[in-house]
């Protein structure tokens, strides 16, 4: 899965002939099992829930082939990092994951924890490894599962972010999960726009199975936070990821844009299209992209991709479908 001059040349030829090479993965984040942050374990149906398999089925039917399923580490492994899994939460999460993979798509296990456990920065790398041993053991026989080490590390020591990622990778492989992809995230909320300055040392991560993918996130609003429906310009998508594209290629790495979104308006639409065309044109290093986000409890959220009436689903589905593999 390493980039090569050969695949670059093929991508170039495909572009020249008007048929851009498709990304391997194109899909939608799935929220709600991580909702109720800070209320642990919380009450199923009140503080948190699980994604709608009906909605996911609709999206798979339209061609989307990857779903990143957010969950809370505190609910899956409630007592301490080295503790065992809560059987009921694991069973419900497994139902969601198996629905996705039984229907032919990839399911990304996303501990939506920002490098924290019960609000404290995780500094116990061995304990973090134990957490991943528990999770990987439960899913090691499903080769369409992808392990995302953690959602959006931020304001953490950079060597700690490196060490936590490496501990996760080592634990996942040692648990016998050797066929699956692993997504490593970075500091500064995994922001693609600062990846080349913040996450330089993550190029040193090693994976015995050689199936490591660097997951970055990118929003198109003024502060990169994904909280506004206003996009800075029609070219802001490309502007913010070109440095990451170069970083991946220079380091011989593969990347996935694990979260992106923009408002339901024409300026954002042009910027989103430019971003996705750029990823496709560089599909030797970019392997996929996932919209943020679907899920049954988003209501009228500006980026909701929940069928049938989510704000972004109704505005963007026609465009995004054209990027599915
Ligand atoms: C799991 O889902 C069932 C419904 O299928 C629900 O009754 C139960 O409370 C859930 N438990 C957890 C911990 O998610
Ligand atoms: C990680 O990156 C930081 C910041 O660039 C650097 O100071 C540190 O030495 C790096 N750590 C390792 C182990 O490479
Ligand atoms: C780093 O990435 C940013 C954003 O894509 C880009 O503007 C900048 O030129 C890059 N810097 C270097 C040194 O590549
Ligand atoms: C940008 C964005 O949508 N962020 C979301 C990340 O996930 C948390 C928890 O699900 C949401 O509250 C944020 O809005």
UniProtKB/TrEMBL annotation:
Pfam families: Cellulase. The keyword Signal applies. One of its GO terms (molecular function) is cellulase activity. It comes from the Eukaryota. GO terms for biological process: glucan catabolic process. Residues 1-21 form the signal peptide. It is an enzyme of class 3 (hydrolase). Its EC number is 3.2.1.4. Residues 28-293 form the Glycoside hydrolase family domain. The keyword Signal applies. Keywords: Glycosidase, Hydrolase, Signal. It catalyses: Endohydrolysis of (1->4)-beta-D-glucosidic linkages in cellulose, lichenin and cereal beta-D-glucans. Belongs to the glycosyl hydrolase 5 (cellulase A) family. This is cellulase. It comes from Pestalotiopsis sp. AN 7. The gene is cel5a.
């Amino acid at each position: 899965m390493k980039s090569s001059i050969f695949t670059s040349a093929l991508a170039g030829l495909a572009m020249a002939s008007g048929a851009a090479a498709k990304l391997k993965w194109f899909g939608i984040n799935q929220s709600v099992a991580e909702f109720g942050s800070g209320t642990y374990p919380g009450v199923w149906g009140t503080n948190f829930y699980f994604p709608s398999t009906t909605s996911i089925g609709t999206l798979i039917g339209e061609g989307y082939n990857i779903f990143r399923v957010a969950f809370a580490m505190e609910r899956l492994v409630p007592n301490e990092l080295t503790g065992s899994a809560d059987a009921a939460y694991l069973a419900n999460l497994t139902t969601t994951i198996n629905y996705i993979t039984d229907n032919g798509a990839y399911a990304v296990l996303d501990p939506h924890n920002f490098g924290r456990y019960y609000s404290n920065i995780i500094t116990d790398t061995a304990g973090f490894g134990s957490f991943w041993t528990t999770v990987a053991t439960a899913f090691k026989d499903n080769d369409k599962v992808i392990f995302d080490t953690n959602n959006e590390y931020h304001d953490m020591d950079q060597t700690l972010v490196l060490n936590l990622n490496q501990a996760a990778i080592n634990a996942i492989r040692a648990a016998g999960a050797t066929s699956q992809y692993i997504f490593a995230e970075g500091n500064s909320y995994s922001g693609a726009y600062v990846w080349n300055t913040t996450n330089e040392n993550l190029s040193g991560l090693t994976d015995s199975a050689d199936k490591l993918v660097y997951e970055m996130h990118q929003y198109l609003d003024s502060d990169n936070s994904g909280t506004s429906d206003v996009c800075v310009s029609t070219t802001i998508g490309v502007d913010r990821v070109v440095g990451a594209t170069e970083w991946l290629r220079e380091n011989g790495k593969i990347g996935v844009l694990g979260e992106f979104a923009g408002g339901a308006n024409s300026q954002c639409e042009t910027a989103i299209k430019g971003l996705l065309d750029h990823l496709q044109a560089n599909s030797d290093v970019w392997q996929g992209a996932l919209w943020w986000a679907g899920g049954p409890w988003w209501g009228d959220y500006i980026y909701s991709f929940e069928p049938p009436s989510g704000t972004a689903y109704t505005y963007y589905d026609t465009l995004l479908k054209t990027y599915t593999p």
